[in-house]
């Protein structure tokens, strides 16, 4: 079973993949990586000597006294270069809650145990443990363009994480399965699929996703348990009348340049073309996972906030995303394990 952070990221990928023009996606060539495992300390020397990559000694302060660890020197893995990221348990309000974490932060002992387990996996090439301050520095660099997000997220909001690079030909699903049950892990995100989405072109696009049968979203009449672990009430799918009303509403919006409607099959076909090389993602995604949507392109320079706010209030609408904001949300979730509501990701006029 996927963790809440993985479910949320997969849903975001499904939404984004359903609305991406596959012609805008560049295929990501498999990196030419060494096929033999090397101790991380040796990678420090090799990287510094051949590529000018600075070696960093990371000190994790996860508590006080005995509950502190200093990680051995590791070759730094940039957030955009990791194949996978292990998100450790965190009590931060911005981290998607994983029931097995029991409402507690990962301990130093648990982080050390995960590090040892990672280095014992033959398919892992390198690992880099990221404490809160290092994560915050990277977070600020990634979102320097997004001041509202920087204001909303502090160093204490970010979980400890471990970035991984995998050997060429590695089976991502096997690596995930090997790690998933370890104590202290809140989730494992596969960064490759998300980075593919982020390579797509940026435009003034608003994705209006419609309610599907059984949706747990409150906007569709659904409901989850307070801890988010189980759906206690299933929502209803958007009706034909609601879809027609939305079409009429969009037709009358002065900010709209053009729009198209995408049903589940069309969304899935588009998704398959966009992620044909990602077998793990394709295997876990079905036609029924794809939301129906209106793809609304706004006129250049128009205010996106007014139409987004109006569309969110309409019956039959599950969620509405302004694409530049959605991309930042996905990046924050995939790389750092934090979920920022869209109203904190960017503000009108940004």
Automatic annotation (TrEMBL):
<dbReference type="InterPro" id="IPR004513">
    <property type="entry name" value="FtsX"/>
</dbReference>
<dbReference type="GO" id="GO:0051301">
    <property type="term" value="P:cell division"/>
</dbReference>
<dbReference type="GO" id="GO:0016020">
    <property type="term" value="C:membrane"/>
</dbReference>
<dbReference type="InterPro" id="IPR040690">
    <property type="entry name" value="FtsX_ECD"/>
</dbReference>
<dbReference type="Pfam" id="PF18075">
    <property type="entry name" value="FtsX_ECD"/>
</dbReference>
<keyword id="KW-0472">Membrane</keyword>
<keyword id="KW-0812">Transmembrane</keyword>
<feature type="domain" description="FtsX extracellular">
    <location>
        <begin position="91"/>
        <end position="188"/>
    </location>
</feature>
<protein>
    <recommendedName>
        <fullName>FtsX extracellular domain-containing protein</fullName>
    </recommendedName>
</protein>
<feature type="transmembrane region" description="Helical">
    <location>
        <begin position="42"/>
        <end position="62"/>
    </location>
</feature>
<feature type="domain" description="FtsX extracellular">
    <location>
        <begin position="207"/>
        <end position="320"/>
    </location>
</feature>
<keyword id="KW-1133">Transmembrane helix</keyword>
């Amino acid at each position: 079973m996927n963790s809440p952070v993985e479910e949320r990221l997969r849903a975001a990928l499904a939404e984004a993949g359903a609305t991406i023009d596959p012609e805008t996606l560049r295929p990501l060539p498999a990196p030419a990586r060494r096929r033999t495992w090397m101790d991380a300390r040796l990678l420090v020397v090799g990287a510094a000597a051949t590529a000018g990559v600075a070696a960093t000694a990371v000190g994790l302060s996860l508590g006080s006294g005995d509950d502190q660890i200093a990680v051995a020197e590791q070759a730094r893995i940039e957030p955009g270069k990791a194949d996978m990221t292990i998100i450790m348990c965190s009590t931060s309000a911005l981290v998607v809650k994983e029931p097995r974490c029991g409402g507690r932060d990962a301990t130093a002992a648990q982080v050390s145990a995960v590090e040892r387990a990672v280095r014992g996996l033959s398919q892992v090439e390198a690992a880099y443990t990221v404490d809160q301050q290092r994560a915050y520095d990277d977070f600020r660099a990634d979102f320097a363009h997004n001041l509202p997000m920087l204001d909303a997220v502090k160093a204490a909001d970010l979980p400890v994480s471990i970035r991984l690079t995998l050997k060429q030909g590695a089976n991502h699903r096997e690596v995930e399965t090997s790690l998933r049950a370890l104590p202290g892990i809140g989730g494992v995100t596969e960064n490759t699929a998300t980075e593919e989405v982020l390579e797509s072109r940026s435009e003034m696009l608003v994705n209006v996703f419609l309610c599907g049968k059984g949706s747990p979203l409150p906007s569709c009449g659904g409901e989850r348990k307070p801890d988010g672990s189980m759906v206690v009430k299933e929502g209803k799918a958007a009706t034909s009348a609601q879809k027609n009303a939305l079409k009429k509403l969009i037709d009358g919006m002065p900010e709209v340049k053009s729009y198209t409607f995408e049903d589940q099959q069309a969304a899935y076909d588009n998704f398959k073309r966009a992620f044909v090389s990602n077998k793990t993602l394709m295997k876990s995604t079905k036609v029924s996972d794809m939301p129906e949507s209106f793809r609304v392109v706004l006129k250049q320079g128009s205010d996106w906030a007014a139409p987004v706010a109006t569309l969110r209030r309409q019956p039959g609408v599950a969620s509405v995303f302004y694409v530049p904001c959605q991309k930042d949300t996905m990046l924050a979730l995939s790389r750092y394990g934090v979920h920022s509501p869209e109203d904190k990701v960017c503000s009108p006029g940004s």
